[in-house]
Design brief:
This protein has 298 residues and is an alpha+beta fold. The protein contains ten helices and seven strands.
Length: 298
């Protein structure tokens, strides 16, 4: 997947409102975009959960037979919430507001195209962040950072949106669904407390990984530096969650495939143990390159 237009900050700690220029961009969208797109731009995505996800193939985009991409009608339902703080005579009063956002994207293209419903509907999956942008004459993009799946982009031409209030129990019920089955080297939730580079690699966040390795806003991370708490280097985390984007990015930046995690496993060991087929394919292609020196097995 390509980088986000905003260039995500470190996963889970900075909101889009903190990114220079985004509030002004959002204000222009709400003012100038078609009403349904403006309504979509006003949604608070942080911590939202996906209640349902269904695709219907609707045609192909591009020249027939030449790089043509299947387009879909995407039916998606999110349960979102925002933290409302009211300044009353009796002091500050806080409450959660919850809403069900039902969406239908017409003539939509997904990136990555192989996103499965299971990647989005498990109890351990939520949206960390979202952005919307105008990317072509009549094409819009909704890009979501889905934890721990990675980035998901929906390119669309038309959207129908319906928003209805719901109770907190609707949001909580989604959290109680069976987990996707990702289990880190320690109990679930370890990623959120990992080092920035390991966390970004695990989330499939290529932009955040670049920020961590380049030291933007923080000390630069070593590309093969093993997180002292969880025992993973960034490449191990990318492979563990079978994230193609961050696996490729780390190899291109020179990550050492021989580095072992706290249990003595290389990235390839983890890929095979986890049945991370996309990551294994990338690693095998890397080993087959004529001009590299992995020294695997020395």
């Amino acid at each position: 997947m390509r980088w986000s237009r905003v260039g995500w900050p470190a996963v889970g700690y900075v909101s889009l409102e903190d990114v220079d220029g985004y509030p002004e961009h959002l204000a222009r969208l709400v003012t100038d975009a078609p009403p349904s797109v403006a309504a979509l731009a006003s949604v608070t995505w942080s911590e939202s959960r996906i209640q349902s996800w269904r695709l219907e193939e609707s045609g192909r985009h591009g020249d027939a037979g030449v790089d043509s991409t299947p387009t879909h009608t995407v039916h998606a339902v999110f349960v979102v919430r925002n933290d409302e703080v009211l300044d009353t005579p009796d002091g500050l009063w806080r409450r959660w507001n919850h809403a069900r956002v039902s969406l239908r994207f017409d003539r939509a293209v997904l990136d990555p195209s192989d996103t499965e419903a299971l990647d989005l509907l498990a109890g351990d999956v939520h949206v960390s962040r979202g952005e919307i942008a105008h990317v072509d004459a009549d094409v819009w993009e909704l890009r979501l950072l889905v934890s721990p799946t990675g980035e998901l982009a929906i390119h669309f031409r038309d959207v129908v949106i319906e928003v209805r209030p719901v109770g907190e129990e609707d949001w909580a019920a989604l959290e109680s669904r069976p987990a996707h089955g990702w289990h880190g080297p320690v109990p679930d939730g370890w990623v959120e407390w990992a080092t920035p580079a390991v966390r970004a690699a695990a989330h499939g966040d290529v932009g955040g990984l670049s920020l961590a390795l380049d030291g933007i806003g923080q000390d630069p991370a070593g590309i093969d530096e093993v997180d002292p708490r969880w025992g993973f280097a960034p490449l191990h985390a990318a492979v563990w969650f079978d994230n193609r984007g961050t696996t490729e990015a780390l190899l291109e930046r020179g990550a050492d495939v021989r580095v072992e995690d706290a249990e003595g496993r290389t990235a390839m060991d983890i890929a095979r143990e986890r049945a991370s087929h996309r990551a294994e394919e990338i690693l095998l292609a890397w080993f087959d390159r004529p001009a590299h020196d992995t020294n695997e097995g020395e």
